[in-house]
Amino acid sequence: MGLSGVQPVYRDFNDASSLDASAIASLACDVSFISDASTPDETMVARQVERLKNPKFTALWWDIFDRLRSDELVPHRARVMTHVHDALRDASIEIDDNWLDAIFRFFDQLNEAMFQQQTIDWLADSTIKLYLYGAGWESHPTLSRFARGQVDSESMRIAVARASRINLAAGVYGALSPHVTEVIGAGGFAMMRFTPVDLLERFYPPIWEFCGRNQIDTNAQLAERATATIRNLLDFAGRTIGVHPLHAWEDFVSELRAAAESGYTRSAAAVFANYAAVSFSSKDQLLGMVERYLYDGPQRQRLADEMRREVRARFDHVQVNRPARATVAA
Question: 264 near 147, Cβ under 8 Å?
Answer without folding.
Answer: no
